[in-house]
Amino acid sequence: MSEGLSHVILNASSADAFDKALNFYCAVGFQIVSDSHDNDQDFTSKIAWLALFGGKTQKDLTIKLKLNPAFSPRAALCQDIDFASQEVVLVIATANLQDVETVLTESDRHFQKHDIRSEDNKHFSREIYTLDPLGNVIAFTNKASPFSSVLLEHSHVQHQGVPPTVELASLHFGHKKKIGVLTSGGDSPGMNACVRAVVRYGISKGCEVYAIYEGYQGLVDGGSFIKKMSWIDVRGWLAVGGTSIGTARCMAFKTREGRLQAAENLISNGIDSLIVCGGDGSLTGADVFRAEWPDLLKELNETGRVSDELCQKFQHLTIVGLVGSIDNDMSSTDITIGAVTSLHRICESVDSISSTALSHSRAFVIEVMGRHCGWLALMAGIATGADFVFIPERPPAEDDWAAVMCDVAHRHRHLGKRKTVIIVAEGAVDKNLNAIKAEYIKDILTDKLGLDTRVTTLGHTQRGGSPAAYDRILATTQSVEAVEAVLRATPESPSPLIGINNNKVTCGPLMKAVELTHAVAEAISQKNFARAMELRDPQFADEYDAYIASTIIDDTTMRLPEHQQMRIAILHVGAPAGGMNAATRTIVRYALNRGHKPLGVFNGFPGLLNGSIEELTWLSVDGWTSRGGSELGTNRTQPDKDMGMVAYQLQKHQIQGIILVGGFEAFSALLKLEEAREKYPSLRIPMCHIPATISNNVPGTDFSLGTDTSLNAIVEACDAIVQSARSSRRRVFVVEVQGGKTGYLAVEAGLATGANTIYIPEEGISLSRLQADVQHLIDLYNDDPPEKSEGRIILRTETVSDTYTTDVICNILKDEGHNIFDSRTAVLGHIQQGGTPSPMDRIRATRLAVKCVEFVELHASAAFSEAHANRSEQPIELTHAKESAAVVGIMGTDVKFTSVTDLLSETDLKNRKSTKSWWYAHRPLVDLLSGRGLFTSREQDEQAQQQSS
Ligand code: ADP
């Protein structure tokens, strides 16, 4: 094969073949440099010069295309022949084989794909072979050079130590995709992050992106409602709530006439793909539009509104759905964009209401949004420790639910609780589908229990405001996938819906998701509540059970037989993290419901050594869900300070199960306790560890408690810093974040705040990297409008380098930025532990806590049963199995226990971190969405323009 050629001459034997070849090569990215007739000859000797500009990474390729009637054309190759075995005229290296496939599919060209494994088995490269219209075999490869194993394609797989690079399109495709993006239906926080990511990622992929203002109304009205977006247009949008391109409820789009007009507007703007961010109504509309598209096109053509040529060109409309909805009411995705922020607002309100309720000993009935979906109500109930929740999918089982509710409220009051909080979803019903309304509940509480009861309807505050970190990240990663889905789409593929399952962004059929969503409402209307619960995400039922098990003081139905009741110790280890108290509260309450004795160990292992152990009661942990820090007290001391004394205290207090809540120190402690079992029988009890650390470095879990709280604290601080930087002058802030030897916080906060770049321990810092970053900042500032002072931030993980400290980097930037920009530092320090824990951390804590109590029961049960059968005393040694010393983790949507010894294989003990880091796949996006590569591609554009003019 003629690898490495940079110039070829191709002959066409007819004018038709010449034109077809010209079109083909333009479609795969070549640009016409000159197109001429040889002066003194007739039209039968046309020549065109075509060039493919390789930019900085690749050689330029030129083709001299010649019309030469004397040339005898090649015999056409049969499609069954392996093209790779034939003489290949041209090899084109590109990062975007997907684009190549799209072009070839769209132009109906047969192609063959070969996936080739590298000799060291580490990489796959791909080659695509096709025939040009002249019958020449040409190949596309994603190898940087024919002789190297380096791939151009950037992969989302995890790297360790090697900075992943993002290759921007090295080919500029002739058929630039034009993508329209709109937000529709009820607004939700994160919609702006969607538009920003679609615009920026789309541009980086060589597409043109158009914002369609005012949802479908803008599509129907056209004109100035459809605006081409530039990179700069979406600056600062991550932090802005609602949707800056507007949304509307559009009746016209529900009519065929309206959709006909919308189709005409799309075509007249050259838009061939649409990304719609909205709720199930908007996405239903999107799917109707796509299904109708061929008919609409036909009518537009027949009535002369669209020419034959355009009709041919716009035969297929690509539609991709993103779910923006605060209710989390869409099936096929675990969570929708905006739901978490809405939950933040609800929890803030309920927390505030709780303090006044407590002061006045009042009852509050709080109505939250959710017509067919109880997600917000249930999650708010869990996160705030509400006494009762009413949701549409799971109505109270009893006919006289009012009596049950009063009984629960009465029992709680009887224990000394001064407040009663009941959360009702807007669409809550009883099992006969009669609405359960807040006012009615209020009347019951007032009349039957004599409680001073108030109703609060939260209303539009729930629409959110500035998006939470989770929504910004979700919206960004999903929108990147939406653009990828546009680029992958073929006429045959059904419209996709971008979702998230098991903590991974997914792409599934849109219509199926819409159907399933409607099925929930239908199941409720048919009183098939089991089906309604089933159609929700898998965590929903789990969380409902956890709520019931831990919130409502039991009437003894959950209680275990006496011989299985245990004494369970709870201990906090390491630095404080949001959710530690929430976990402890749930352990205590669920344990009490099961008949166990929960024992709080104060002040970590030193407390255990001193015997600072106290029985915790139902009321003693009241209100702990919303408290930050550690109520029990926490520190880094390890048990091996005096393992003998640890064993002694466990035996003395007859502790039969131990739950550690903490970070990497807790993990190390568990390892040591497990090792010491050999020597000390009193350690042969079930032991588990709930990871709680802002660094997210504990192996065996995707998320530790506290990470979400911390991300929100960082995001809030960074928003304020950017605002300050922008207000005063052109300034770059180097913001130092925590994380130990793990870059999780920097990567995720970088994505959520739109940081310019990040320095993380996984990559380190080098002088050349700093130089490139300085240059990039200079480029960005030079490109800013002169009258604007932009603020930018760089996040640096505290341990990334001893040499390039936060101050050193700041000084380098200051010096090198000359008078173009200034630099400052901000060390966030302990602020990152957050004040009040975020709802996500509280909910995760509740779920894990219930599972841990179940874990302790499970691993003790065999020993108890044996003792019971032998009528002997409760044994001291309950278990020696390695599985009974485990870390509990959130893995995707599941909760899993992994033995601490098994986790050693995925632990980097020296750097105190997990070797698995799913979040590292987000790393390249930080740089890409902040504009790295923007100037390279602009230079390429300019170069191409100069050459062609
Ligand atoms: P959401 O997207 O938040 O569920 P709506 O149900 O109000 O909000 O839908 C938003 C918009 O989507 C509607 O105003 C309408 O323009 C469009 N839409 C909804 N359903 C359909 C449908 N069946 N056919 C066409 N358009 C629809």
UniProtKB/TrEMBL annotation:
Pathway terms, separated by semicolons: Carbohydrate degradation; glycolysis; D-glyceraldehyde 3-phosphate and glycerone phosphate from D-glucose: step 3/4
User: Which positions carry the signal peptide feature in this UniProt record?
Assistant: none
Residues covered by the Phosphofructokinase domain: 178-486, 567-856
Binding-site residues, ATP: G186, R249, C250, G279, D280, G281, S282
Needs which cofactor?
Answer: Mg(2+)
Subcellular localization, as worded in the UniProt entry: Cytoplasm
Q: Where is this region: Interdomain linker?
A: 553-566
What does the record give as the active site? D327
Enzyme class of the recorded protein, top EC level? transferase
Keyword ATP-binding included in the entry's annotation: yes
GO CC, any one term? 6-phosphofructokinase complex
Q: What is the E.C. number?
A: 2.7.1.11
- In which residues is beta-D-fructose 2,6-bisphosphate bound? 636, 693-697, 731, 738-740, 798, 824, 830-833, 912
Catalysed reaction, written as an equation: beta-D-fructose 6-phosphate + ATP = beta-D-fructose 1,6-bisphosphate + ADP + H(+)
Q: What does this protein do?
A: Catalyzes the phosphorylation of D-fructose 6-phosphate to fructose 1,6-bisphosphate by ATP, the first committing step of glycolysis.
Q: What is this protein called?
A: ATP-dependent 6-phosphofructokinase
